[in-house]
Amino acid sequence: MIFSLLLPSLFLAASTVFAQSSSSTPTISAVGSKFFFSNGTQYYIKGVAYQLTDQDPLTDSTQCKLDARQMADLGANTIRVYHVDPTADHDGCMSAFADVGIYLFLDLDTFDTQFDQDNPYWNQTQLSAFEAVLDAFQNYDNLAGVFVANEAMTRLNGSDAAPFVKSAIRDVKAYRDMKKYRDIPVGYSGADIPELRPMLQNFLACGDDPADAADFFSLNVYEWCGSSTFDGSGYSHLITNSTGVQIPIFISETGCRIPKPRLFTDQAAILGDDMAPYWSGAIVYEWIEEANDYGLISYGSKTNSDNPTALDGYPRSGTPSPVSPDYSNLKKQWATLSPSGTAMSDYTASAKNLKAIACPTSTSGGWIVDAAQTLPSLGQTLDKAATSTGGLGAGGKGAGASATKKGEAGKPGYHVVEGGMFVWLWTAFVAGVGGLLIWL
């Protein structure tokens, strides 16, 4: 009798744990050239760059809660973070941002694993580091997407690095799929280099196999300064250059700081009729006020450089205080801009008919990547003197380089988180029932 009375309670406890482990936060996916929430509405980015220090900014839940509330007041729905520690606990911060509807675009690379355009390579050390970050964040529903690199190419003759960046996209996507994670968008954040436009975006998006292509492309754009215009700023050329790109594209950094004050009038173009039908929003640089003078908030007045809680004299934690009038100028812009976009149900059919954009052709003195060249395999380096291998050397570069082929990036012994949760709950339930029977 006691067992029959307590058994429903045990099931109720188990179901409560399941309910607590699930999230009501809709996830983000890339469909055709747009981002969508899992509830079917289109996702437009109103974001801010959020780093605070060179270290991981997503480990101090108290600070994250303070910043998340202030960002919600600003009207932001997205943050971009450049460096994290995959071994740290991010639950508190990711929950704090999710609670106010803020999503994360996360860079996978670090100072130790970033690409070198002068000596490009892609090896197991880099891939393993990227995998560790993806493993640590894939379970958060408010992870909007990941970048494999930021501004890896900053000049025309740096385009030799493009095939290695695309290989990274390919291998991270293969790892994501092998692990049965949701389709977290994987893409690239590029420097706004006229000599690379639009060849780089087209190269990362092109090809017959979608598994090899970026899920999205983004640019760091500082063209609209002061009281500029859609045509005068060059934003109209961004639209022209992105015509035909079949993946989402957005601005991953923006916000000129000269002339002052920062007006952010470009947001009306990005999130308005000029660009919203084609682009997916923008991330403003940056949240914290520091020496570069781009901050939207500060954590107090500049202090002595010996202050252990400050970097270069700028406090890195505390109650955020808006920088005037920049903060209010951006808030006013975003308050009037809420593009509705299109419903996923109305768009999916046409998205299936989108064709991959043509790969750019190499030209003398111009874009130097041969579209017919096979992407580098894991462990290959650039050999500019080589001809028979299309410019790719066979040897590895750096610790951990290997000749692993596409599809072999997965590591045996990894477990699927969802299954692990079920096993834990079932084990706990059986143990509880067994203990109860023994007690009876």
UniProtKB/TrEMBL annotation:
Q: Mention one GO molecular function.
A: 1,3-beta-glucanosyltransferase activity
* Membrane topology (UniProt): Lipid-anchor; GPI-anchor
Membrane spanning stretches? 421-439
Signal peptide range in chain numbering: 1-19
**Which Gene3D superfamilies does the record cross-reference, listed alphabetically?**
Glycosidases (3.20.20.80)
Main location as per UniProt: membrane
Residue ranges, annotated region (Disordered): 389-410
One of the record's GO cellular component terms: side of membrane
Keywords, in A-Z order: Glycoprotein, GPI-anchor, Lipoprotein, Membrane, Signal, Transferase, Transmembrane, Transmembrane helix
Give the record's GO biological process terms: fungal-type cell wall (1->3)-beta-D-glucan biosynthetic process; fungal-type cell wall organization
* A Pfam family matched in the record: Glyco_hydro_72
From the Swiss-Prot or TrEMBL record, state where the protein is found.
Cell membrane
Give the top-level enzyme category.
transferase
Q: Which InterPro entries match?
A: GH (IPR017853), Glucanosyltransferase (IPR004886)
Which SUPFAM superfamilies does the entry link to? (Trans)glycosidases (SSF51445)
Q: What is its EC number?
A: 2.4.1.-
Compositional bias, Gly residues, is annotated for 390-399
Family from the record: Belongs to the glycosyl hydrolase 72 family.
PANTHER family linked to this entry: 1,3-BETA-GLUCANOSYLTRANSFERASE GAS1, 1,3-BETA-GLUCANOSYLTRANSFERASE GAS2
Function of the molecule: Splits internally a 1,3-beta-glucan molecule and transfers the newly generated reducing end (the donor) to the non-reducing end of another 1,3-beta-glucan molecule (the acceptor) forming a 1,3-beta linkage, resulting in the elongation of 1,3-beta-glucan chains in the cell wall.
Its name, as the record gives it, is 1,3-beta-glucanosyltransferase
What species does this protein belong to? Ramalina farinacea
